[in-house]
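quick one, two chains, predict together pls
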Amino acid sequence: EDQVTQSPEALRLQEGESSSLNCSYTVSGLRGLFWYRQDPGKGPEFLFTLYSAGEEKEKERLKATLTKKESFLHITAPKPEDSATYLCAVPPNAGGTSYGKLTFGQGTILTVHP
Amino acid sequence: EAGVTQSPTHLIKTRGQQATLRCSPISGHTSVYWYQQALGLGLQFLLWYDEGEERNRGNFPPRFSGRQFPNYSSELNVNALELEDSALYLCASSLGPPGRADTQYFGPGTRLTVL
């Protein structure tokens, strides 16, 4: 069964203090990896899809990278509005018993202080 | 382009009652997924519908059920509500059966409170 583990559970940064969030996974064959942002009480907002090791994607202050065992979400010079829970997820095997199900990590709660 | 929409935003029920939650996918999306996010817990997969058929379900009892209509909108029904059913229920949609890595886009959720 696919497993996704995120670390740290919580991260507090000062505005402008860059850092990285980690997502490690155990899957039977990497089919891609998603990053989402979730604000309290709201649905996850899609950020990135990464398909293969070595791939990188950027959006404003966020940059996602992927290796064969883990993914990193780098946050450069964060602002208070970047405070949220960041979730990573892996898609299912086509035709397997988990078909249709995204397996999510528990998330990293990011707080950026002004 | 409109995103995934869900209704109602909030729903308050008492134990033993039934709850009905609704979801409209992004235009052109045929797959709809339902997830439960209880307080302090991660997203748990409930159900997946595509082309009007239930394609897969997570480890939830049969009192969690649903359907998908010809316009691809979907309904989640929870019968005989229990206190532990209190959670944020999230609907997501994707272009079609999850292929290589079809992105699932989420709606704002329905907060169900069982008293």
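The interface with chain A takes residues 4, 6, 31, 33, 35, 42-43, 45, 48, 50, 55-56, 58, 88, 90, 92, 97-109, 111 of chain B (CB under 8 Å).
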